[in-house]
Amino acid sequence: MGAKLILRKKEYEVPAGITVRKAIQQAGLNPESVLPTRKGELVTGDTILKDGDLIRLVAVISGG
């Protein structure tokens, strides 16, 4: 089944059993540019994904 990452309106299917950071990289995204959340709670990059996990990615905005 795997897990799903969502960034804005784009969805990325990723395998379960890997870290959030690895999943973000496999989706072709920069882990430093997004904040992963699950059920509204921030999760760390070393969190292991489980089957059916839905991770929403929030873009980090920086400026100067």
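[next item in queue]
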Amino acid sequence: MRKIVQRTCMGCNLKKDKKELLRLVLNKDGEFFVDKTGKAEGRGTYICYDEQCLEKAIKAKKTEKILGLKINDELCDCIRGVIIEKKKSEENN
């Protein structure tokens, strides 16, 4: 039986299955991006597919503490878009 990998959401601090969370990555070239595959190289952090968790993480400056990087408005909008896209696809299924 395979072990279910769990990670902690940086917004709500709850442990969840890795597949239920969105991975954000800072690679060795300093690029910060959303990792939809969950396998990209680099330092990663996780967040629930929930806008409230995103807002909590931004307010508490979690990405600055975890990755040493401040999320700008453009990147925040990109992450929010992925969260909204996921919710819409779940509603359609």
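[queue empty]
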